[in-house]
Amino acid sequence: MYENSFPKKRFQKTLEFLEKHLEKNSSILDLGVENPFSKIMSDAGYKVVNTSGEDLDDELTAISSFTGDAVTAFEIFEHLVAPYNALKEIKTKKLFISVPMKLWFASAYRNKNDVRDQHYHEFESWQLDYVLEKAGWKVIDSIKFTNPVKKFGIRPFLRRFTPRYYLVYCEKR
């Protein structure tokens, strides 16, 4: 199911979490362009459409016009300057989000060659929960998990037991 270059642990945990809360054959708007995980969701029996690469800080039409079963935003909101605006526009009753957690031993990701490929936010769990609540969502379930890397050093060692990802299932209040 997974190719060697894909983050198998993250994808497996995310799919298991999604399957726990959302029936197969549900229609999903997956924020962001088509990606390896949107293919995995489709292969698992979900009807997935993606946004088209528009700047979701400024262009919210795809979000506000979607009337399916759920919205997913896996590794998306850290790239937005104002994720609150997108959260307010979602019309579905179910929302699934994963974000990288702020690590005390590493700076936020930044790609100096591509302004769209950097993290404006790396969240502590309470911060994402607060934004969700303010935007009208109730957190129903969440998990945190690690992302070990096969490298040597202090940071790779810390990644073995420090949660890197926060995955949340929410319902509209």
Describe the structure.
The chain contains six helices and six strands; from the N terminus they run H-E-H-E-H-E-H-E-H-E-H-E. By secondary structure, the protein is α/β, with parallel strands linked by helices. It has a single domain, classed as Rossmann fold. It has a six-stranded mixed β-sheet with strand order 2-1-3-4-6-5, sandwiched between helices. This is Methyltransferase.
Proportion of residues in helical segments: 25-40%
Inertia-based shape: globular
The secondary-structure class comes to alpha/beta
- The CATH superfamily turns out to be Vaccinia Virus protein VP39
CATH architecture: 3-Layer(aba) Sandwich
Number of strands: 6
C-alpha-based Rg, rounded: 16 Å
Number of helices: 6
